[in-house]
Each structure stands twice: as structure tokens, then as C-alpha cells.
Amino acid sequence: MPPTVGISVARTDGLDKATGATRYVDDLAPPGLLHGRTIRSTVPRGRVLGVHLDFDTAGFTIVDAHDVPGRNVVALIADDQPCLAADEVHHAEEPLLLLAHADRRRLAEAKVRIDYAPAPAVLDPALSDRVFKHLHIAKGDVAAGLAEADVVVEGEYRTGLQEQLYIEPQGVVAVPESGGISVFGSLQCPYYVQRALCVLLALPPEKVRVVQMETGGGFGGKEDYPSIVAGHAALLALKSGRPVKLVYDRAEDMAATTKRHPSIVRHRTGLARDGRLVAMDVEVLLDGGAYTTLSPVVLSRGCLHATGPYRCANVRVDGRVVGTNTPPNGAFRGFGAPQTLFAVEAHMDRLAEAVGLDPLTIRERNALRPGDTTTTGQVLGEDCSALDVLQAAAARTQFRERWARLRGTGRGLGLSLVFHGAGFTGSGEVKLASRATLALTPAGVQVRVASTEIGQGTRTMLAQIAAEALGVPFETVDVAPADTAIVPDSGPTVASRTCMIVGRIVERCAERMKATLAGRTPADYLAAHGDLVLTGQYERPPGLDWDEEHYRGAAYGCYGYACDVAEVAFDPDTYEVRPVAFTSVHEVGRAINPALVRGQIEGGTVQGLGFALLEEVVVAGGRMANAQMTNYVVPTTLDAPPIDVVILERPYPHGAFGAKGVGEMPMDGPAPAIVNAIRHLGIDVREVPATPERVMEALCGSR
Amino acid sequence: MRFTLNGREVGTTAHPMTRLLDVVREEFGLTGTKEGCGEGECGACTVLLDGLPVNACLVPVAHASGREVTTIEGLAAHALQRAFASEGGVQCGICTPGFVVAASTIPADATDDEVRERLAGNICRCTGYGGICRAVAAWRAGRPRTAPADAGSSATE
Amino acid sequence: MRAPVTSFELVRPASLQDALALMREGGLVPLAGCTDLYVLLNAGITPGQRFVDLWALDELRGIDVDRGVVRLGALSTYREVMSAPAVVGHLPMLVEASRVVGAEQIHNRGTLGGNIANGSPAGDTLPVLAALDATVVLASVDGERRVPFTSFYTGYRSSVRRGDELIAHIEVPIRAGRQWFRKVGTRAAQAISKVVMAAVRSDPPRIALGSVAPTVVRAWATERALAAGATLAEARHVLSGEIHPIDDIRSTAAYRHQVAGNLLERFWRDTESAR
């Protein structure tokens, strides 16, 4: 059997997508459909005094908080977010009322007037006293380290809101059936939605079926938010007895749904004269928006990556994520790490300057090596490749020589070194207890997992793993739709875990199946013995211990490492910074499908360039003032340089065929690489997006 | 109003100011053309109107009257579609029909820079455009230089 | 689509004469390429309930040269403008401005007349037409009325166009002088201008800017200063008194002031050898 793992087999869904045959949520039109609409708060905080329906309500289904059969919450971590607000609103765009009607025109024209008693809104996280989570991580003695250091450098770095901007907006179709509900949605985590619906609707899981439709991009924006869309559609469907389609248009999606947490990160770093890191003292402040959602985990990941892929004996990371009266923030590729890695990597270049080293040398001196321990005391294995990616990127771009030569030429060269823990933090994977099922078919096997295809190539990659481990041709492997009626709970499609963790469960399950087949073909086995359905579950690799209380131990099963080099051109008339060349070296354990891995690196890098240079959410009065694609700008073909991608492999023994994660890491390096390239031009920018206005301010002192 | 839709003469009684996007999707069930923004920014709704790429979310169906409309379903662009599918030009797929329709009009002798400029009206959030440009390049490399780009003709495929 | 389009009325005249008669009756919003109008309608902003469709009026199409004047029909799309030999040959900065409006899909539908009628302060062709001393030809049942482009706008999105008039043609005289154009957008393509400048190195120079005031600005005083031999520093200072940029969701007044001055200097230096 020729190998498929490591081969860039063509993705299985490519042609249907290229011909327009693939169907997404808004392409569904079941008979008897009603369309749904969400009425939202127009004030960032206040009491609701009255809701007035200034329209003819004939033919309308109307739902408010009192119609919730179960608990009026979006079940996630803290359960503090109502599915529908009732007497109080805590952010602009908070959902209050739901309408449905068969006629979209009547639905759009329905006028709802809401009276509020507005209350003072907290919009600045630095002024908030509502702490969703506080974390304190310590190693060694940071005070002593700072006192002993030859040089101490301080700095504050900021990142803002970022909108995921999946090209397919949020949407769900909910269909009431025999005492329960079926939901067809654009989503990343069918079991998250199922759990949220069970709580909201007071229904048992057997009565709540969630089917992931082909999903036009997620990037984390469809991790938890679809539970709200599904809840709303389900409430309307159950009350009306009709199928309900609830699809957001772009303006609503941008204004109302979750975004990347803004950050303020402060560093105080002690260095020895030779550039060795002696003490790292970091403060992290994240803005969670109005409700907890996933903030504790975003803070956790942000803090665990806050000191970068460097060795340092004395570390303190103090992090808080706080509430403000803005739409709740949530998951976006990287999940806290892009924010804190931006800060530490921009800071590193200032550290280099302080001791007269170039950006490459200071990183060579401090990069983690196999056998080193992280901030939480995790000992890194042979797969630790920080130096490898750094040296590969430096050699490929002739970094040292060009960095010296380009000075003063109107071109800047910048470097960043990052790492990214794959899988859920700490004991998260143990708690998830993910499962995967394989069912033998006459031709081969069907893979049943809750992991979703959202563009990254899940179906193709898992089929390759199953085929190789079972010993059947790739073409004979079928991947079932992510339908809770068919697939077990494999955990959410987030945290760069789908290949490494779920793929590994599939791999081991396939090995068991292969052993059971004992050389027989699937058809022969089925004829002789009948069905063969095996389910595998996550097994924690040996040596992974995590102390949640003290934040010590193995924070992640393993880390991927990456190094980015950005070359920018500077226009002195307009202060525009244009990326003209970009090299990205990623070490990913094992590239199951190199073309798909390359696609993640290229796509994530361009999203990272948007984060670095273009993407700014303008907030006025607690709401997004530029909720149009005209005004919130993401990179076009002319904003994205070709990305030079290099993939390295240092297998992680407990990932599928040695794979680590790769979905998020490409988001971590571009912003600091760009800001460091801007620094190379002689301009000191400490905030992204590094818009021309900010660059001008840094250069001229006025914005 | 009568117009040619994917080579077939059709009629519609939709209100003349109904978006062409809604007419093709809802009245004719051609759901390959997508709505991503309603502002003419994302290009996911790109169709050909008399052979020229336009944003169907900004075209009243009255302007299709007597004209030729080609959607992704009617585009004879199999080689281009195969190139997208095999060269990494497709990830989540929601932008892909718009890109294929827009790319189908790019002449064979366009440079890489010109390709990027012609596709600047289509936004992809997944690929970073690398796979898309490689797909279009692979397609152009396989096309005869002397035949003009003709999305409706199968001779160039 | 948030606007209730099915409740609107669309009148479709077969000729310009019929259209002008309808305009004289009043209460109709003209529509052409719809690349501005439908963005508003999609967002639920309704400029009116009754619309008159100009798209079929071929009398408003065509680009030709006659006795040293390039005449462009109001319905000329950006695609037609960019590829017309008369424009390519004589008005290269109008080609450049058309290229940077939106992208491919907009080029095939958006019109020059629409850009003018929309009257956005950020309209990319407007500084070009101002710097080239274009003339707007307005048509009504009473005949034609010619208005210098630099007198066309009276304020934010307001013009001298009467409610019964349509923009029929734009006339651009062919004159000597190297043309210079620069748009500073929010990104490299499909961008709204933050600052846009069109200029001609003639004697005196002709300089116009967009996105720095409620309407397009012809920098008369700056032109006079440069013609009288002012230094670039002095000319920058004069320019800063002629523009009134604001902070908005895309940029800041300070940025626009600074960049406008930088572009002025760049224009002057770039065209130095073309005197």
C-alpha cells in the first residue's frame, strides 16, 4: 500500500466547492421556512423600561426571555451570559427579542421601539473592576533577577479588537421535530451547540440534533457564537412549529459577534550584558467584553506564551481579563497568544538594542533548547526546535547580512520567533475525553468524529491518517458529516488539536481495527463477522502532569515553533508600510498533507499581516462604528506578498504520525515581524495595527 | 423580464429592483453565487454580465433584461476549476465560485501582477491568496495562447 | 438587502428625452450602474421610493475627441474610460483614477456620471476632473447647461444640479502639462481614499484634492503661490489653509494635513523635469 501520510493528496471537497455545488446554510430552503431576525440593544448599558412592537404582529412569531423553557443562559464556562436579555443590557448589540415571519420584507420592516434607562458604561479595560479571571505564574525570583541584571528595559505594547471576517456570515436553520429540535449550522463545534441547546431548551441530548453544514470559514469566530444563533433559531422554531432560518448579514455579524480580545502587555526585563535573559516580569491585561465567554482560557494561553520561546530562570506573569460594556470577545485563531507573543517579540528587539546585539543574536542566545524548562516547569523534549526554525529562517533570508545592509535604504527587515502549544491547556484534554469512531465499510472505513471541516482540510487529513494506519487506500475512506446523531464527541475544532489529538485517536483506533482484521479485506471481514465499529478515546500521554492551582507542569503536550522574517518597503510621503517579502519557517512535528499545511501557513500569515497593518475595529459609544467590509479592511490580493513557506518536522511521539498543531501558529509571528521591520526603519511602534497614522505619529510625534 | 441565464432563455416576474443575486439564488435555485457582504466588497457574488465580472449584489435584475448572465453553474471552466481544486486554491470554499468566475476572464498572457490586480475585488480569508494565484497560473500555463479567453466556449478547455 | 426594494417603483424610459420629461415631473431618483445606490439600499438607507433607470440610455454613452476636447458620456463605465484611446492618449490621470476605484467588478458597472452625481468627498475621479478644468454638461427638457467642474459642488454632497437635470456628458479640454495622480487609500486595492490628489504641471500648475474637505478642493491659492515662485515649504503652508480635513473612521485630520503636504512636494519634485 503506497503511503498517503506526508503526501499532498488533493483535498476531497475541492472540486464541488470550485463548481458551486457545495451547499452552505443559506442555500437551504426547507418547505414552510420562516426567516428570523434579532432585535438588539442600542445602548451599552442600562435597564430596559419597555419594549414596543410598533407593527402589525399578524403572522409573526415573537420570542423574548420569558419564552425560554430551560435556563436563559449561553452555557459555556461561567454561564453568566443570557441567551436573551430581559431587564438589563450590558453591551450594545445585546439580543433582546426575536422575530420570525415567512415574508422577509415584513420581517425587515417590523419596527420595534425599546425604552432604556441608560447607565454609565465601562469601556476602558484599565478602568474595569470586574475581573473574569486573574492568573499569577511564577518561576524563580524575579525581583532578585531584576536587581542583579546589568540592564533593565521596560515597555508597554498594545493590540486591538480583530474581527474574524469569515466570508460566510453566521447562520443556522432550526427544524422542530417530534418533541425535539434539529439544527443545521455554520459552526466549528457541534457538541458545544448541543450542550448549550439542552440547557436553554431543557431537552435531553437525544432530542437535540446538531448538524454542521459546510462552513465558510470560522477562525474561532464560530467556536461559541453559533450556540447563540442556534439558541435563537431553536426558540423561534419551537414556538412557531416551523423551520426557521436565522442568517446574519455582514453588518450585523461584524457589529454583534465575538472578536479577538484587546490587550495591554507590560514588560520589565532584566538582561545580562551578553544579552542573556535574567528576569522577565510581565503584566497582561485583556478586555473580555461584557460576559465571561471563553476569557479565562484566552488569558491562560496568553499568559503561558507571554515570555516567548526563551529560557529564563526568573519569571513572573501576572494576568487579568476584565469585563467592559462592549460585545463579548471570544476565540480568534491564536486565542491570546498572538497578543502576548506580539509584545514579547517586539520587546526582544528593544532588548537587543539595549545590549548592542542584532535581533538574530539575542534570540540565538536565549531560545529554548531540548531539555530546558518552560515558565511552568515543563521540560522540553527533543522536538523543541526553536533554534532550528530560527537558524533556518536566518539562513534562508541571509538575515544578518541583509539586516546590516538594508539599514537606511527605505526598506526594513524584521524577525520574530514564536511557539504555540497544541491542544487544550493543562488538563483540558483529559476533561474533554474526546472520542473517535471507525466503522468498517465494504470498501474501507468510515471515520466518525465531531471535528469539523472549516477550510483547513480536516476531512482529507483524517482520511489520510485512517487510511495509512488501517492499511486501506485513501479513496476508500469516508468521513461522516459532523452530525451529533452519527458522530461521538471528539471535542471542539479549536486549539490546533484536530490533527494532533483527534487524529491520534483515529490513528490508534485504526491500528486496533487493523489488528482485528488480521489481514482480511474489509469486505471479507464484514461477510464473515458482520459490522465492526470501534471507538477510541483520548489517552493522556505519560509524563503530562498539570497543577491547575499553581499553574505548574506540562501546560501543553508539545509546542510547535516558527520563525518569520518580514521585509517591508516604507513610503515616506504616506507613511505606508508595505510587506514586499515574507518568509515563514514552521516546525509542525509531521506534515500529514504538506499542501494543506502550507495553506494554513499562508492563510494564517496573511491574516496576521492584516492584524499587523490593516485591521482596526473603530469603537464609538461601545459599538463598532466601521461594521462594513468597506471600512474594516482585510488584505486583498495586492496587500498580500507571496509567502515563502518552509516546513520542518520534529515528530512529537504522541501526535498523529508525529504531528503537532499548525492551525494557529501562523497568526503569532507576522505582527511582531512587521513591527520589528518598522523598528529597523528607525520608527518605534508599539501597537498594532501599525497603520500609517500610527507610524506617522511615531515618526513625527503627531497623529 | 427575459434574459439568458447560463445559455438558456429564462423569464422572471421578480420586482425589477430585486438584486440579480437574489433572483439567481432563489428563483432559479442557483446557489453557487454567494452573499458575503451586500456591499460589493467581497466578490463572493461575482457573476458574468455579458461576459464581464460584476457583483450581483449590486445589480438590479432589470439590468439583466435582454442580457447574458453566467453564474458559476453555467461557466464552462472545468480546467480552471480543477486547477483551483488541486493547487490549494480552495479551503472553505465560500469565496471560490466568485474567484473562479472572476478568474475565468483573465487573458492567458496576463502577468502574475496583472492576475492579482484582476482578482483584487475578491476577498479570501482562508488561503492568503497563494494557492489561488498558483491555481490561476497553472490554468494559464495549460491554455493555448492564441485563443481568446471565452468563458462560454468549451474550445478553450 | 435591508431596504424594501419590492415596494419601490422603477421607471425605465427608452430615450433621454423621455427620461428628462420624467425628471421634470419630479420625485425620481436616477439610477445607473448602482455601485453606490445598492450599497445604500443593502444597508437599509433609502434615498427615495421612486427611481428612474438611466442604464439603457445610449445617448449618455460614448467617448470621443472633438476639437481638442475629450467628451465622455455620463454612463461611461470605469472600464470604458480606462480603455478609451482618447483617454489613454490625452488624460492618463483619468485612466489612473479609474483603475483605483474599487476593483474589477466595480469597473464594469460604476460610471463617471455616477461618481460625479454621488458627490462623495472621497470620489477618486473628482480631483482629476477639477484639475483638468472639466465641464459638466447638464441636460433638462430646456436643453443643455454647462457648468465648470470647479463650480459644480456647493457643499457636502450638494451641487448646482437642479432636480430636473441629469448629468449628460463631461468635457475635458486637452491641454499641455504633465499629469500626476496619487490616491492614498486604506489598503492597496478596493479602498476608499484617505487623501487623493490630482495635479497638472502646467503654468500655472493645477492642483486638486479629495477627502480633505466636504467637497473636492481646487487649491487655487497654492497654485498661485507656486506660480509666483514660492518655496515648497511656503506652498505647503498655503495648502494647509485651503484644506479642511477631519478625523473620521478611516483616518485623522493630522494625517491628511501632513500627507497632503507631502504629496504636494512629491508632485512638484516628480514633475520638475517636465516643465
Write a concise synopsis of the structure shown.
The complex is a heterotrimer of chains A (703), B (157) and C (275). Chain B has 157 residues and is α+β, with helices and mostly antiparallel strands.
Structural class per helix/strand content of chain B? alpha+beta
The total tally of domains of chain A equals 3
The portion of residues assigned to helices of chain A is 25-40%
The most extensive interface between chains reads: A-B, 57 and 52 residues
Quickly count the helices of chain B. Answer: 5
Oligomerization status of the protein chains:
heterotrimer
CATH class of the largest domain in chain B: Mainly Alpha
The CATH topology name of the largest domain in chain B reads: DNA polymerase, domain 1
Poorly predicted runs of 5 or more residues of chain B: 146-157
Shape of chain A: globular
Q: What is the CATH topology of the largest domain in chain A?
A: Aldehyde Oxidoreductase, domain 4
Kindly provide the radius of gyration of chain B, computed on alpha-carbon positions and rounded to a whole number of angstroms: 15 Å
C-alpha end-to-end distance of chain B: 32 Å
**How large is the radius of gyration of chain A?**
25 Å
Instruction: Report the count of strand segments of chain A.
Output: 28
Extended strand count of chain B: 5
